[in-house]
Design brief:
This protein is an alpha/beta fold and 254 residues long. It has one domain: Glycoside hydrolase/deacetylase (TIM Barrel), CATH 3.20.20.370. It is 38% helix and 15% strand. The longest helix has 18 residues. The radius of gyration is 17 Å and the shape is globular. The two termini are 32 Å apart. The relative contact order is 0.21. The model has no long low-confidence stretch (mean pLDDT 93).
């Protein structure tokens, strides 16, 4: 496929995925919630980000692509197998980001099934107790063509369309707000929490690396701490995506 056509197709699919083939569900959480999620999981997300969450007695969701483990991305080195095992043992959620980190819009049903299964099998070689329940679209690009397939495999699929999840949501296109230095500051974090509190909503942050000088896709430890402090001050529960869905009464996949 010509790269230009592929990119256009991805953009169109992502826009259509906001509205079509929804998996509507009314959240039944009794209080506001926030989840901190990390895509691709750079090593610093596991070795810096996760320990900061643990200081607040919180756990995050780490969307893993097995093919990125220990690999240099151009911006960071991927987490190691031991890092992933450690996250799992300490109670963080390990979730699916395909094995090869390929856009969902470039996968037909057979290829998507193969990506999911390869990632699942890889993670099971690390720890037989890892159960991947949730998915994040690589590059944040939702696929209107794959939503129905993902619905059968996962509780949820997360994109990168900003906003608070509240009321009736599409479980296969959950909104997520960037916790990324060029796109978010402390005031923006506070406003997001105020909206979550006002709507009794579920705020999902997404990021990548956690470094003092982060990549264009990551955050600093200071910004992460500010977000955690903001949640604590408002007594908003910090939970993984899987735990948030359980609290909201979401259905099981299948």
């Amino acid at each position: 496929m010509h790269p230009g056509w592929s990119a256009l197709r991805a953009r169109v699919s992502n826009r259509l995925a906001r509205h079509l083939r929804a998996a509507p569900f009314r959240l039944h959480n009794t209080s506001p919630m926030v989840s901190f999620t990390f895509d691709d999981i750079p090593k610093s997300a596991a070795t810096v980000g996760a320990p900061i969450l643990e200081e607040y007695n919180a756990r995050g969701t780490f969307y893993v692509s097995g093919g990125l483990v220990d690999q240099w991305s151009g911006h960071w080195t991927g987490a190691s197998a031991d890092d992933i095992i450690g996250l799992h043992r300490r109670g963080h959620e390990i979730a699916c980001h395909t094995f090869s980190h390929v856009r969902a819009t470039d996968l037909d049903a057979t290829a998507m099934a193969a990506e999911i299964e390869k990632n699942r099998r890889y993670l099971l070689t690390l720890a037989s107790s890892i159960k991947i329940e949730n998915f994040a679209y690589p590059y944040g690009l939702g696929s209107v063509w794959r939503k129905g397939q993902l619905r059968k495999a996962f509780h949820s699929s997360r994109g990168i369309l900003p906003g608070v999840n509240s009321g009736i949501v599409d479980l296969q296109f959950l909104r997520a707000t960037p916790l990324i230095e060029p796109h978010m500051d402390r005031d923006g974090i506070d406003r997001a929490f105020e909206e979550a509190a006002a709507k009794n909503g579920w705020l999902i942050f997404y990021s990548h690396d956690v470094e003092t000088a982060p990549s264009p896709y990551g955050c600093s430890p200071a910004l992460l701490r500010h977000a955690l402090d903001a949640a604590s001050r408002r007594k908003i529960q910090i939970v993984s995506v899987a735990e948030a869905l359980r609290r909201a009464g979401a259905p099981q996949p299948g």
